[in-house]
Design goal:
By secondary structure, the protein is of the alpha/beta class. It has 2 domains: 62 residues, Phospho-2-dehydro-3-deoxyheptonate aldolase, domain 1 (Alpha-Beta Plaits, 2-Layer Sandwich), CATH 3.30.70; 250 residues, TIM Barrel, CATH 3.20.20.70. It is built from 10 helices and 14 strands. It has an 8-stranded parallel β-barrel, surrounded by 5 helices. A 4-stranded antiparallel beta sheet has the order 2-3-1-4. The protein starts with a strand and ends in a 6-residue tail after the last helix. The model has no long low-confidence stretch (mean pLDDT 96). Bound molecules: phosphoenolpyruvate and manganese (II) ion. The site of manganese (II) ion (MN) has 5 residues, from loops.
C-alpha cells in the first residue's frame, strides 16, 4: 500500500500517521521528494481499513499494490489446486462435468436423469433440494426428502453429488453430499461462508454473485479458506447486465483471469448464464475451449414439465451431443 501525503501537511501530522501505522504492525518507508511525500507500507495491510486511511486529513490518496486475498492468491500458491470431489478430481488438468436437474422432483426423476447423464459422460450429479427462488410462490424444493432422493441416485449410479446449502441449519443433512454449492445469492452471506469454512473440509462450489466483481468472488473464497477449508471451486454463472435476451450475461474472460489471480479451479455454468437451453451447448463448448476446469449443466428428463428452470434445461439427448463436443474440444483447450 502506498500513501501519498497532502502537500503542505504538518510534520507532526505525518509523524502521527507513521506512529499509527507502526501501531498496526506496518513498517512505513518514507520518501520525501521536492513536491511529494510518499509512505510505502510493508507488512500485513489486509487488516487496515483503506477507506479510513484515505479519509485522514493528511492523506491525499492511497493505492493498494498487493491483493486483499492471500489464501486464494496464486502468488502464494503457484501450483493449481486439485480438489477431490467424492473421488473425482478437479483442477490442475483434471476436468469434470456436473449435470442433472435444477431441482430434485422425485426419486424416479433424479435416478432417471442420473443414469442418462452418466451414460453420456457426466462425472458428478447435480440437483437442488433447497432452492433459492425469486418468488415465494414458486416451487421451493423438496428439502430433506429431496436430499434423500439425491443420495438414492448416488447409490444407484455411483455419481458423487453436488447440491446447494442455503442456510447452515441444513448442514446436518449433508453427510452424504460430496460437494456443497453456495449459490449466487449467498455469495456474500459471510456467515454461511465462515460456517462452511469452520465446519467442513468438503469441496465448496462457490457461485459468482449476480453483480459481483472477480475481486468480490475471490474475497468470498478467502472467507471460506481463512476459516479453515481450502477446498473451494469458483463458478462463473453469468452476471446481471442491461441485456434481456439472455437470463444473464456470460463473462467467459474470467476463466483465464481467475486462473491468473488464483490457484483455485474454475467451473462454468452455461445453464444459468444463458437461461436458454439452445444456448447451453455453444457456451459449454466455448467455456471448455477457454480453459474451464469443469462445467455444471442443467439436464431434465422432460424440460417442459420441470418445476424449476425448464427453459434452460437440456434434454438427455441434447446433453449427450454437448458431451461429444466437449470431449472433442478438450485437447485444444487454452492453458
Ligand atoms: C442453481 O444452480 O440451480 C442455482 C440456483 O444457481 P445460481 O445460484 O447460480 O443462480
Ligand atoms: Mn437452476
Amino acid at each position: 500500500m502506498i500513501i501519498l501525503i497532502k502537500q503542505g501537511a504538518e510534520k507532526s501530522q505525518v509523524d502521527n500517521l507513521i506512529n499509527w501505522l507502526k501501531a498496526h504492525n506496518i513498517d512505513p518507508h518514507i520518501s520525501v521528494g521536492s513536491h511529494e511525500t510518499l509512505i510505502g507500507c510493508v507488512g500485513d495491510v489486509a487488516h487496515l481499513d483503506i477507506d479510513l486511511v484515505s479519509a485522514l486529513d493528511v492523506v491525499a490518496s492511497v493505492q493498494r499494490v498487493g491483493d486483499p486475498y492471500k489464501a486464494a492468491n496464486r502468488k502464494f500458491h503457484p501450483d493449481d489446486s486439485i480438489i477431490d470431489c467424492g473421488g473425482q478430481l478437479i483442477g490442475g488438468g483434471h476436468f469434470q462435468v456436473i449435470a442433472g436437474p435444477c431441482s430434485v422432483e422425485s426419486e424416479e426423476q433424479i435416478i432417471e436423469v442420473a443414469k442418462a447423464v452418466k451414460a453420456a459422460g457426466a462425472t458428478l450429479l447435480r440437483g437442488g433440494a433447497f432452492k433459492p427462488r425469486t418468488s415465494p410462490y414458486s416451487f421451493q424444493g423438496l428439502g430433506v426428502e429431496g436430499l434423500k432422493m439425491l443420495v438414492a441416485a448416488k447409490k444407484e449410479t455411483g455419481l458423487p453429488i453436488v447440491t446447494e446449502l442455503m442456510n447452515f441449519s441444513q448442514f446436518e443433512y449433508f453427510n452424504d453430499v460430496d460437494v456443497i454449492q453456495i449459490g449466487a445469492r449467498n455469495m456474500q452471506n459471510f456467515d454461511i461462508l465462515k460456517e462452511v469454512g469452520h465446519n467442513t473440509q468438503k469441496p465448496i462450489l462457490l457461485k459468482r454473485g449476480l453483480s459481483s466483481t472477480l475481486q468480490e468472488l475471490l474475497m468470498s473464497a478467502e472467507y471460506i479458506m481463512a476459516s479453515g477449508n481450502p477446498n473451494v471451486i469458483l463458478c462463473e454463472r453469468g452476471i446481471r447486465t442491461f441485456e434481456t435476451a439472455t437470463r444473464n450475461t456470460i463473462d467467459l474472460s474470467v476463466v483465464p483471469l481467475l486462473h491468473q489471480f488464483s490457484h483455485l479451479p474454475v467451473v462454468v455454468d452455461p445453464s444459468h448464464a444463458t437461461g436458454v437451453a439452445r444456448l447451453v451447448h455453444p457456451v459449454a463448448v466455448a467455456a471448455t475451449a477457454i480453459g474451464a476446469d469443469g462445467l455444471i449443466i442443467e439436464v431434465h428428463n422432460d424440460p417442459p414439465k420441470a418445476k424449476c428452470d425448464g427453459a434452460q434445461s437440456q434434454t438427455p439427448q441434447m446433453f449427450a451431443e454437448t458431451m461429444k463436443a466437449i470431449k472433442a474440444v478438450r485437447p485444444y483447450a487454452c492453458r
